[in-house]
Amino acid sequence: MKSSHQRSLELREALAGAKPGSVILLEPGIYEGDIYVENLKGEHDRPITIGAADPLNPPVIKGGGECMHLVEPAYVEIRDIIFSGARENGLNIDDGGSFDTPASHIFLRNLKVFDVGPDGNRDCIKLSGVDHFIIENCTLERWGSDGSAIDLVGCHDGLIEGCLLRHGDDAGASGIQIKGGSCNVTVRGCRFEHSGLRAVNIGGSTDLQYFRPQPPPGYEAKDVTVEGCIFIGSEAPIAFVGAEGAIVRFNTIYCPKRWVLRILQETVSPDFVPCRNGVFTDNIIAFISKEIIETVNIGSNTAPETFYFARNVWYAVDDPSLSFPSLPVEEEEGVYGIDPKFIDPEGEISTLNLEAQPTTRELTL
Question: What is the pTM of this model?
Answer without folding.
Answer: 0.94
